[in-house]
Structure formats: C-alpha cells, structure tokens
C-alpha cells in the first residue's frame, strides 16, 4: 500500500464526520468522485455531508436523484474531502468548514501548485480524479459495490472523452477493467451520458457550430452563445457543452474555444486542444486553468472584446 493510501485509510478510520466537496460547475468526474466517496463513507457507517454549491447540469441529474445534498456551509466536521479541484477558490464559500476541519484531504489531477490539504493526493498525469480514487480504493482494499464502481467509471468516461484523450492510457484501461468486474454499468452510462441529448439542445449546438469563426489558417475556432439565445431555446449553458468538440475533431483545427455568456458583461471561456497547444497556459493568462488539452477561465467585457482578447493571445503561437 502506498504512503498516501495508508494515510487516507488512517484518516477515514480515525474520524467520524465528513464533508465532501468538489469544484463549481459540476461535471462527470467531480460528481462521480464526490458521490463515490459519499457512498463509500456511508457504507462504513460514517456521518457524511455532500456539499452542493452549484447547479448540477440536467445531463448529470440521473446520478443524484436519491442523494441529499446540503447547502449548509456552517456545518462542522472532522474531515473535509475536496475532490477534483486544483484551486481552493474554486471550492466556493466554504471557509467555515475548511477552518474547523481537523483534516483536509485533497484528491485531484489538475495542474496546480496549491496543496491546501493536510493530505494531498495529486497526480496531474492521471486521466481523472475518479481513476485516482479507484486506485486508492483498490489499494486500501475498500468495499466497492456496483453503484460506486459505476460512479467511478462515469468520471473516467467523461474526463477521457470516452477514452479519446491521451491520458487514457494502459493504467486507465486496467482500472476500467477492474471497475467493470466490480459491476460498473458501462452500457447504462454510455446511454445516459452520450446518447440522451435533448433534441432542442442538439439543434442549438448545430446553430452555434454554423456560426463559428475560424482564425490562423483554421487552427483556432471560436464559437459563442449568449444568454438571449439560450433563453430563446429554453436551455442552459451546460446543454451546449458538446459544441466545443465538433470542429476540434476536424483535421485542421488544433484549438477550439467556446465563449458562454454568464452575466451581461461576463463570459466563461472553455478551451480544448488536440495535439500540441497547452491551453492551460492560455487560460492561466486570464486567471483560469485546467489541463494541457482542456482548460477554462472567465473574462469580463463585451463579447466582441472577449473574442478579440482570445484571438490576440494566440498571436505568437507557433502552429504546426
Ligand atoms: Mn477531472
């Protein structure tokens, strides 16, 4: 058993109350991580709070139907477990829980230098936080039932783009294989995650793609969606998340960028790259972050201003 797993096991054994939290804007990996740890601790008879600070996208609500999240950030617990979150500020307003906890366990795979835990289990080379958690749970010989295995597989599937991305490596397949053996419901997940799109949302994704703009010899593509348009279609930003992948998968495009309006003068930007551009570095210049091939940030200003800022940031890139 490796030293981190040992400490993890020890902290779990010695304490009784836990709060589990993940980053704002929930995705498949952070929800899978949060819920798998939630059920794991519940099954051990621990007192567990899953902290909900942000809206769960419609497409992922199928996993949380029977879960009771709490919005109470004044609870006091022995241990805070923060998952899939590089930077403390992306955990939201949880200073009270943070300051009162005896132990803080950070489990994450983002590129970040922030070691805000008393135990930090961080591997920025692993596909997903769910893969990392799977390995810890295997290592400590934890009881993983089919429900937990399914949740862990959900994080691996979503963060690897169904094994499309480079970080889905030999080890990812071994971990996946073990999860399947433990009863992870792959076919159920594939249908729920990738074949349950809202028809209206797909129509809007089509429109967004039709209006995309190309720069630098088609190496960079920028798409955008405003709240006006989302309202017209009666959709939320997470409904059109797939739009960013469409042109990235063309042979010419290296970077795909999606701008989503959050408020009047505030835009959320997501970047995806395919082979060699480190979009984490680009996002960092805007105060954001993420991974080499997927990163994000927020920028204030008009849509036109934001778009121009992005184009400018790629000015000195050496495209291959
Ligand atoms: Mn992740």
Structure description:
By secondary structure, the chain is α/β, with parallel strands linked by helices. It is built from 12 helices and 12 strands. The chain has helices spanning 3-14, 28-43, 95-100, 129-139, 146-159, 170-181, 186-194, 199-210, 227-233, 243-248, 279-285, 303-313; strands at 17-22, 47-51, 69-70, 79-83, 103-108, 119-122, 213-215, 220-225, 255-263, 266-273, 289-290, 294-300. The strands form 2 sheets. It has a 6-stranded parallel β-sheet. A 6-stranded mixed β-sheet has the order 7-8-9-10-12-11. The termini are far apart. The mean pLDDT is 94. Bound molecules: manganese (II) ion. Manganese (II) ion (MN) binds next to loops.
Distance between the termini: 43 Å
Could you give the order of strands across the largest sheet? 3-2-1-4-5-6
Could you give the count of β-strands? 12
Please give the oligomerization state of what you see. Answer: single chain
Order of helices and strands: HEHEEEHEEHHHHHEEHHEEHEEH
Q: How does the helix and strand content classify structurally? A: alpha/beta
The unique ligands bound to this protein are:
manganese (II) ion
Shape: globular
Q: Estimate what percentage of residues fall within beta strands.
A: 15-25%
- Structural Rg: 20 Å
Q: Total number of helical segments?
A: 12
Q: What's the average pLDDT?
A: 94
The helical percent reads 25-40%
The description of the largest β-sheet is: 6 strands, parallel
């Amino acid at each position: 058993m490796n030293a981190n797993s040992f400490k993890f096991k020890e902290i779990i054994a010695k304490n009784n109350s836990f709060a589990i939290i993940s980053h704002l804007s929930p995705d498949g990996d952070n929800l899978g991580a949060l819920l798998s740890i939630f059920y794991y601790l519940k099954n051990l008879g621990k007192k567990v709070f899953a902290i909900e600070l942000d809206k769960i996208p419609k497409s992922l609500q199928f996993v949380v139907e029977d879960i009771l999240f709490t919005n109470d950030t004044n609870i006091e617990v022995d241990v805070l477990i923060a998952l899939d979150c590089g930077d403390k500020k992306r955990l939201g307003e949880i200073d009270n829980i943070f300051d009162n906890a005896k132990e803080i366990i950070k489990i994450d795979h983002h590129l970040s230098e922030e070691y805000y835990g008393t135990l930090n289990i961080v591997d920025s080379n692993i596909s997903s936080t769910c893969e990392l958690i799977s390995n810890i749970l295997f290592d400590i010989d934890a009881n993983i039932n089919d429900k937990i295995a399914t949740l862990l597989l959900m994080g691996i599937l979503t963060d690897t783009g169904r094994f499309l991305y480079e970080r889905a490596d030999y080890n990812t397949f071994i971990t996946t294989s073990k999860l399947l053996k433990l009863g992870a419901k792959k076919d159920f997940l594939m249908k729920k995650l990738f074949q349950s799109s809202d028809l209206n949302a797909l129509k809007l994704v089509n429109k967004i793609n039709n209006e995309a703009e190309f720069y630098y010899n088609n190496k960079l593509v920028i798409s955008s969606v405003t709240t006006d348009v989302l309202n017209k279609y009666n959709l939320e930003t997470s409904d059109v998340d797939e739009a960013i992948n469409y042109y990235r998968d063309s042979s010419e495009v290296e970077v795909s960028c999606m701008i989503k309006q959050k408020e009047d003068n505030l835009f959320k930007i997501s970047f995806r790259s395919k082979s060699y551009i480190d979009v984490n570095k680009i996002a960092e210049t805007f105060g954001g972050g993420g991974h080499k091939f997927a990163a994000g940030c927020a920028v204030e200003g008009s849509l036109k201003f934001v778009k121009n800022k992005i184009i400018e940031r790629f000015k000195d890139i050496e495209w291959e």
